[in-house]
Amino acid sequence: GAARLLVIGGGFGGASAARFARTQYPELQVTLVEPLTRFVTCPYGNLLLGGYRQIGDITHSYDGLRAAGIRILHDWAEGIDAAGKRVRLRGGETLAYDKLILSPGIAIRYGALPGYDEAAAQALPHAWVPGDGSQTLLLRRQLEAMEDGGVVGISIPANPFRCPPGPYERISMIAAYLKRHKPRSKVLALDAKDAFSKQGLFQDGWKALYGDMVEWVPASKDGKVARVDPAAKVFETEFGERHRLAVGNVIPPQSAARIVLDSGLAAQTGWAEVDPRTLASRAAPDIHIIGDANNGAPMPKSGYIANSTAKQAVASAVAALRGEAPPEAVYFNTCYSHVGDDYGISIVGIFRPGPNGFVEVPNSGGVSPRGDLPEQRRLEAIHADTWYASITRDMFG
Ligand code: FAD
User: Fold this and answer.
1) Measuring from atom 32 of ligand 1, which residue has the nearest CA?
2) Surface-to-core class of residue 365, CB atoms within 10 Å of its CB (0-12 exposed, 13-18 middle, 19+ buried)
3) How much is the average pLDDT of 46-69?
4) Which residues contact 262 (CB under 8 A, 6 or more apart)?
């Protein structure tokens, strides 16, 4: 019969892989396992916080993939038998595969930041995983409910984490909301690092658009949050300073998703090691692990990279089934960020397999130019919107 390609996770990596497989290799039988019936993206969730988007704008259905001939099971994968090439679902079914594409994203490491457990996420939302949108909406409602003059705290983790520029776009979008509706308020961003993606560009934008409404505190200036108190809404730093907040957003430490850890596919680091040419797991060669769950450094954990690696993983899996060599690999990334009204910035990187993992192609990428460049910023905001429209089309049809 037809070769069976099983995809676990219907997010940026998994939906991209399923649709690419279906359209490029019509002879394959493609099955996708994803518990969500509607997928609310993390990208553009920050724009919802800023008031630039509504929840419907960032919600996607699986009808297009189903119509394309992909079998979709709304269930959880609960166990992977790599030797027997079988996956057990929570609903009881067992699926056999010839090749498995695994793209389940991240897990939040509850407890890694003292005080931050699953219950704490109701008082101090993370809004850092896709789902039904409830976390992002909760954070938005807290911003709407706070009084003018309050402090919105954001706790930012050490590397590696999902979406390197994401916390800083969030600072920007929350500041944009406050500037418009609660101008005596401020954003206090406490960081476990001393440097971040597109730092100069973000800081230029904050200064120009929000003045001293935004304060970013690096680890070296006691920015690292060491514990949180959800009941009192307090972030306590490494050196004991207690910041009382009107609204607190905790972007917590992360690992690969549960299924990766439980199946023994993660290394000590909490992320999966893969062959940079094919994304095949170092622990199980018939399982390709794509998206945020793998250790793709120096590639960022981005939706763009999840999509780019999805295609290489599918093409490599098919090549292996045909007894052919994998195609030559190249991975593209662009991360756009919105800083304010008509104000976009970006970072580009191109990556290839190297002798010991992924390497960035020298002189291939870069960031937007600095300076007072309103037309450049306006155009990049449009490019960002176009990117979102095109990648979600590429994922969901
Ligand atoms: P996901 O997209 O999270 O998909 C994983 C899917 O797997 C989920 O739908 C989940 O339900 C499912 N799943 C998990 N476990 C199981 C299981 N056991 N069985 C079945 N299904 C399972 N990236 C960009 O490129 N550009 C941006 O502008 C951008 N902005 C961002 C803004 C924010 C606020 C955040 C948080 C992230 C942003 N990202 C952006 C990053 C992007 O969201 C991630 O890199 C991307 O989602 C990773 O794709 P993935 O397939 O690994 O995981």
Assistant:
1) 43
2) middle
3) 98
4) 79
Which residues, in sequence order, are CB contacts of 159 under 8 Å at separation 6+?
193
Cα dist from 356 to 161, 310, 332, 396, whole Å: 21, 20, 19, 34
CA distance 184 to 82: 56
The alpha carbon of 11 and the centre of ligand 1 are apart by a number of angstroms equal to 5
Angle between helix 199-210 and 166-181 (nearest 10): 0
Structure tokens at 60: 């996607």
How large is the ipTM? 0.99
Contact between 30 and 7 (Cβ < 8 Å): yes
Question: How far is residue 251's CA from residue 163's CA, in Å, rounded to a whole number?
Answer: 11
Predicted confidence band of residue 1 (pLDDT cuts 50, 70, 90): confident
Choose which residue among 20, 33, 41, 163 to substitute to test ligand 1 binding: the one with the highest number of ligand atoms within 8 A of its C-beta. Answer: 163
Give tens-digit pLDDT for 105-162. Answer: 999 999 999 999 999 999 999 999 988 999 999 999 999 999 999 999 999 999 999 9
What is the CA(257)–ligand 1 centre distance, in A? 10
Helix (H, G, I), strand (E, B) or coil at 273: coil
Ligand 1 atom 4: residue of nearest CA = 11
Q: Give the pLDDT confidence of 196-245 residue by residue, as tens digits.
A: 999 999 999 999 999 999 999 999 999 999 999 999 999 999 999 999 99
Please give the structure tokens belonging to residue 186.
């401020």
Taking the CA of residue 76 as reference, the ligand 1 atom at the shortest distance is: 19
Residue 64 CA to residue 371 CA, distance in Å, equals 43
| Rg of the chain, C-alpha, whole Å | 21
- Residues with Cβ within 6 A of ligand 1? 8-14, 33-36, 39, 42-43, 45-46, 76-77, 103-105, 128, 130, 162-163, 166, 257, 259, 291-293, 301-304, 306, 335-336
Report the residue among 292, 301, 304, 338 best suited for mutation to probe ligand 1: largest number of ligand atoms under 8 A from its CB: 292
Dist. CA 207–CA 14, nearest whole Å: 39
Task: Output the six-digit token pair for 350.
Answer: 């191109």
